[in-house]
Design goal:
With about 700 residues, the chain is α+β, with helices and mostly antiparallel strands. The protein has five domains: about 140 residues, Up-down Bundle (Four Helix Bundle (Hemerythrin (Met), subunit A)), CATH 1.20.120; about 130 residues, Alpha-Beta Plaits; about 60 residues; about 160 residues, Histidine kinase-like ATPase, C-terminal domain (Heat Shock Protein 90, 2-Layer Sandwich), CATH 3.30.565; about 150 residues, CheA-289, Domain 4 (OB fold (Dihydrolipoamide Acetyltransferase, E2P)). Helix content is about 45%, strand content about 20%. The protein has a six-stranded mixed sheet. A hairpin with a 2-residue loop joins strand 18 and strand 19.
Length: about 700
C-alpha cells in the first residue's frame, strides 16, 4: 500500500506538470487554423493525465478529460478551427482538473457540480448531447453517464475456518472490492468462541457486504472471490437493489456496525468510497483514518547530486588525514611538524565544508519560472475581465531561489500583478488619449544583486495617484490632515491594512485586501518590498529576498553580555554618536539627526531588558537600518564582525518573541538572537513619528 501511495503521488505530481504545459500551450494558441505542434503538445499532456487516472480509479478525471481530449482531437485533425471561446472553456477545464487533482492529493471530495458545468460547455462546443458523451465515455471504459443511478449488491460472506492458514485474508478481498465502488462491511461475531477456546489461526467471523457504484458488474465481483470460492466458503451475491434501498441498507448497516465492533484480530468495519471523489473516506473499526500529510518533493539535476557525492568523498579523505595527524601527535608530542599539516588539513576541511553547504543548498534551489509561469494566465483572465489589452514580458526566469521561498512568493506576486493590471494600466481609450500605445505592458524580471534576489514588477500605466492616496488615508483616519509626509511615505500607505483607492469594489480589487498581505508575506521571508512610481509613466515594485531561509549573512553586535545578529541586507551604515545631534527626551522617542533627516533611536538594552549594557549613546554605536522606506538607528555597545549564520526557529523550539526572527549557535557554542528588523522598526515607528514631526518643525 505504501508503494501504491508513492505511485499515486508521482502520478499527481506529473499531472500537475502536465496541466502547466496545457495552460501555457492554450495561452499561446492563436485563434484560427489549428497550430498542429501546439495542439499535439496540449493533447499529449491531456492524454497522459487521462491514461494515468484510470490506473488509480480516478474515473471522474478520466471521464472529464475524455471530453476535453475529443475537442483537441478534432482540432488536431483540422475538423474544426480554434476559437477564443474554445480556448477560454479549455482553460476553465484546466482549472477544473487542477482542482480535482488538488482535492485528490489532499484526500478531499471533488467538486462535481463545477466539473459538470464546464463539461457541459465542452459538449456544447462539440455539438454533443449529454447522452452522446455518456455513450462515448462508456465505449472508452472511462465513466458512465451523469444521470445513471448507482447499483448496489448485497454480498454475504462466510469463509472457511482455515482461510488464514492458506495465506488468504479477508482484508485483501475488501480492498479489491473497494476498488469497484463504495463498500460497507458489517462483521458478524456470533460464532466467536470464548477466550479459553480461542485459536488465532481459525477464522470465526462472517460478513455482510454492500457494494455500491456506477456500473458494478456481477462478473467483476465474482472474480474477486475466485480465490476462496469452493474452499468451504459460503458466498452469496444478491441481485442489484434500488438506490432508495441502498440508502436504507446503508443506514441499517451503519447501525449494525456500531454494535458489531469488538476487539478482534480482523477489522470489523471498513467503509470505502463510492467513487474517487471520496477516496479518503476509508474507515476502520473505530474511526475514519486521517488523510496522510503530504511531504513535498523536488526534482534535482543529477549533476548536483554528483557534485555533492564528490564533496562527501573529499570530506572523508580530509577526515582520514586529520585522524593521522592525531596519531602522529600522540607518537611524537614534542614534534611540531604535524602542526603545520594539521593547519593545512583544517583549511581543506573548511573549504570542503563550505562547498558541501553550497551544494546542499543548491539542491533546494529552483528557477523562479515556477512562480512566474502562473502569471500569463492571471494576465489573460484579468485583462479580459477588465477589457484591457496587456502584454506580459518576463526576464530572468532561470534565476534560482529556495523552493520554500518560491512557494510562499507566488501569492504576493499574484497580488502585485493583479493590482498593476487593475489600478496601474489604463483602459485602451485612456491610453490612446494620453498618447500611449493601446496595449499596456507588465514586465516581470528576476536577477541577482549582491547576496540577494531582486524581483521587479514594472508597468507602464498611470502610476499611483499620490493626492488620491493621501486623501483616502485621511478619510480612513490613517493619517492626520496636517501630516507632513514625503512622496515615499505617501506611497508606502498603500501597504496599510484595509487601504484601497478603488472607487468600486469588484472581484478583482477594491476591498483593501492584498498589499498589506504582500508586505507581511515578504517580511516573513526575510525580505523587503519597495515601490517607486511616477504619475503618468507607471510603477515599479521591487521585492528583495535572501537566497535562502536557512542561512543568513549577518552582522554580529554586542549589547552588554548578549550578542545579537543583524541581517546584513537591512543595514545602511554604522555611525559613532554625536550627542549634539540627539533630540528629544531620553528614553522617550529619542531622535538622531542623520544629515537632513531625523531617525528614531531604538535602545536594544531597553527593548530586551539587558541590564549590563552601555547607557550613554556616546559610548556605543548606532546601526542605521531601513525598512519600508523608513530608517532607524539601533543602539548597540559594539560591532563584532560579519559571518554567515544558520537560522534556528525560536518559536518552534521555545516561544515567539517580538522583535526576534530566530536564533543561531555561534562558533564558541553560545546562542545569539537574530533581530527582526522590520518588526523592531515598525513597532517603534508610530510612537516616534509624531515626535519626529514636532522636532523637524521646531528645527
Amino acid at each position: 500500500m505504501d508503494m501504491m501511495e508513492t505511485f499515486r503521488q508521482t502520478y499527481l505530481e506529473e499531472s500537475f506538470e502536465g496541466l502547466e504545459i496545457m495552460e501555457t500551450g492554450l495561452l499561446e494558441l492563436p485563434p484560427g487554423r489549428p497550430d498542429s505542434e501546439k495542439i499535439n503538445e496540449i493533447f499529449r499532456a491531456a492524454h497522459s493525465i487521462k491514461g494515468g487516472s484510470g490506473t488509480f480509479g480516478f474515473i471522474e478525471i478520466a471521464g472529464f478529460t475524455h471530453v476535453l481530449e475529443t475537442l483537441l482531437d478534432e482540432m488536431r485533425d483540422y475538423k474544426r478551427d480554434v476559437t477564443q471561446e474554445a480556448i477560454d472553456v479549455m482553460l476553465a477545464a484546466v482549472d477544473v482538473l487542477r482542482d480535482m487533482l488538488t482535492k485528490l492529493q489532499n484526500h478531499q471530495p471533488i467538486d462535481e457540480r463545477r466539473a459538470a458545468s464546464v463539461q457541459a460547455q465542452l459538449e456544447a462546443i462539440l455539438g454533443m448531447a449529454p447522452s452522446e458523451t455518456a455513450v462515448k465515455s462508456q465505449n472508452n471504459q472511462t465513466v458512465a453517464t451523469k444521470s445513471a443511478m448507482p447499483t448496489s449488491w448485497v454480498i454475504k460472506m462466510v469463509p472457511e475456518k482455515g482461510l488464514l492458514q492458506t495465506g488468504n485474508e479477508p482484508i485483501r478481498i475488501f480492498r479489491e472490492l473497494q476498488s469497484l465502488g463504495k463498500l460497507d462491511v458489517t462483521a458478524h461475531t456470533d460464532n466467536l468462541p470464548s477466550i479459553d477456546n480461542f485459536n488465532p489461526e481459525e477464522l470465526n467471523l462472517s460478513w455482510t457486504l454492500v457494494l455500491s457504484g456506477m456500473e458494478v458488474e456481477l462478473d467483476d465481483i465474482k472474480e474477486v472471490f475466485e480465490w476462496i470460492d469452493g474452499d468451504g466458503a459460503q458466498i452469496s451475491i444478491e441481485a442489484p437493489i434500488t438506490s432508495s434501498a441502498t440508502t436504507h441498507q446503508s443506514e441499517s448497516t451503519s447501525a449494525a456496525t456500531v454494535s458489531a465492533v469488538k476487539p478482534v484480530a480482523t477489522p470489523a468495519t471498513i467503509s470505502t468510497p463510492a467513487s474517487s471523489t471520496e477516496n479518503s473516506a476509508i474507515k476502520d473499526a473505530s474511526a475514519q483514518k486521517k488523510a496522510p500529510q503530504q511531504d513535498g518533493s523536488i526534482r534535482v539535476n543529477l549533476s548536483k547530486i554528483d557534485q555533492m557525492v564528490n564533496l562527501v568523498g573529499e570530506l572523508v579523505i580530509t577526515q582520514s588525514m586529520l585522524s593521522q595527524f592525531g596519531d602522529q601527535a600522540e607518537q611524537n608530542p614534542d614534534s611540531t611538524e604535524w602542526i603545520d599539516k594539521l593547519k593545512e588539513g583544517l583549511t581543506h576541511l573548511e573549504r570542503h565544508t563550505r562547498e558541501l553547504q553550497e551544494s546542499v543548498m543548491n539542491i533546494r534551489m529552483l528557477p523562479v519560472s515556477f512562480a512566474f509561469n502562473r502569471m500569463p494566465r492571471i494576465v489573460h483572465d484579468v485583462s479580459q475581465k477588465l477589457g484591457k489589452n496587456i502584454e506580459l514580458l518576463m526576464e530572468g526566469e532561470n534565476t534560482e531561489l529556495d523552493k520554500t521561498m518560491l512557494e510562499q512568493l507566488t501569492d504576493p506576486l499574484v497580488h502585485i500583478v493583479r493590482n498593476s493590471i487593475d489600478h496601474g494600466i489604463e483602459s485602451p481609450a485612456d491610453r490612446i488619449a494620453a498618447g500611449k500605445p493601446e496595449k499596456g505592458v507588465v514586465k516581470m524580471a528576476a536577477f541577482h544583486q549582491g547576496g540577494n534576489i531582486l524581483i521587479q514588477i514594472t508597468d507602464d500605466g498611470a502610476g499611483i495617484n499620490i493626492d488620491k492616496v493621501r486623501q483616502k488615508a485621511i478619510e480612513k483616519g490613517v493619517i492626520d490632515p496636517d501630516s507632513n509626509l514625503s512622496h515615499e511615505e505617501v506611497v508606502d500607505l498603500i501597504f496599510h491594512p484595509g487601504f484601497s483607492t478603488a472607487d468600486v469594489v469588484s472581484d478583482v480589487s477594491g476591498r483593501g485586501v492584498g498589499m498589506d498581505v504582500v508586505r507581511r508575506n515578504i517580511r516573513g521571508l526575510g525580505g523587503t518590498v519597495e515601490v517607486k512610481t511616477k504619475r503618468g509613466e507607471g510603477s515599479v515594485f521591487t521585492i528583495r529576498l535572501p537566497l535562502t531561509l536557512a542561512i543568513l549573512d549577518g552582522q554580529l553586535a554586542s549589547v552588554g553580555s548578549q550578542t545579537y545578529v543583524f541581517p546584513l541586507v537591512s543595514i545602511v551604515e554604522s555611525i559613532q554618536v554625536d550627542k549634539s545631534l540627539v533630540k528629544g527626551i531620553a528614553g522617550q522617542a529619542e531622535l538622531y539627526k542623520l544629515r537632513d533627516q531625523y531617525i528614531p533611536v531604538i535602545r536594544l538594552h531597553n527593548r530586551f531588558g539587558v541590564e549590563d549594557a552601555k547607557n550613554d549613546l556616546a559610548e556605543g554605536l548606532l546601526v542605521v537600518v531601513e525598512e519600508g522606506g523608513r530608517r532607524a538607528g539601533i543602539f548597540v555597545d559594539d560591532l563584532l564582525g560579519q559571518q554567515q549564520v544558520v537560522i534556528k526557529s525560536l518559536e518552534s523550539n521555545f516561544m515567539k518573541i517580538g522583535g526576534i526572527a530566530g536564533a543561531t549557535i555561534l562558533g564558541d557554542g553560545t546562542v545569539a538572537l537574530i533581530l527582526d528588523v522590520a518588526e523592531a522598526v515598525t513597532s517603534h515607528k508610530t510612537s516616534s513619528a509624531d515626535k519626529s514631526a514636532q522636532i523637524s518643525a521646531a528645527a
